Amino acid sequence: MKARSALLYTVMRLLAFLVPFGILMLFPVFRELYWLAAVFAALIGLSLSLLFLRRPLTEVTTGIAERRGNTKATTTDEDVEDAAADATANAGSADERPQQERTVGD
Length: 106
What we know:
Layout: H1 3-24, H2 28-32, H3 34-52, H4 54-70, H5 77-94
């Protein structure tokens, strides 16, 4: 993942919220009800990001997916479970040797 694409996406998302919020705060009604201006700005910002920020979002998510795919997982849970099952199977076959009968002495 390139840091530039993640930074660009983050800045664009912030601007998609802050610009509508600033415009809404210019109206006298929203000066008193700033939380309503924040809600409307969040909805507008979400809509703008869905419409116009699809490409930067795709670049960021593919970069993250590539980075996660490149991590070297030396052992997985399945490998550990298979090794444990093989070890118990081998130990179980060694324990199946005939045991000597013991007599209880009085």
